Amino acid sequence: MKSDAFVRMVSSGSMNRQVAFVLILLCVLPAVEGLGAPALTPAGLYSRFMLQIGQSRPASFSCTVTGDAVVRSLARIPADARQGTPVVRTWYRRDVGQVIRVENVETTFRNLFSAYQGYLGMTGAWIESRGRSWQEFSAQYSMQITRETPDAWVARIASKGREGDSWGEFTFSKNDSSVQSARFFSRGVLVYSVDNRYGRIAGYLLPVSMTITAWQNGAASSVSRLLFSDYRVNISIPDTVFSR
To answer: Average pLDDT, whole number, for the chain?
Structure first.
């Protein structure tokens, strides 16, 4: 007959082995699960973004654009070219894109802010206008997910055949797939960056501010901030708005 001491010793050893086995499982299982979880592909990220923009952005909108750069530029419009108080507005229509125009001025100054039109597309309109499906988009552009953080995916997008020449680096929110920022490079040198902030307006996720930074020799050479307000959503916008 085994002594009580021996039984206790064996039981204790068995319990220790069980505890060790459970600890090993706890360490190994997360790694196994991580290996089994498929990584997000560029096609998957593109699809997420397109689904988000289709659901959280209206089919059309217009809004007033203000900010330091706008105020400075409007002040330079001559009095005899004004037809009231100049107002800067941007117009978006899903099947066309986005433009920026100055109202209440002569035709000569209507496109005073056309240089900002490319920046406005950095909230998503630029990607959206490059194709309505991954097949269309990937026929013209390469897309590579370069890194991932707890809150975002960062993807590098470039025209096919020019990947080493110039490219954009887009940061997509994991929460809503919106474009949080975009950085553009020319031959490996950062040229400009755009940082976006969004708000819920009439049930839609729309930009409320944009900070545009021009870079030179690795340092910010100028910073402009645009503010978006007075949104009108799902409105009828004639084709003439998008023509120069």
So the answer is: 86
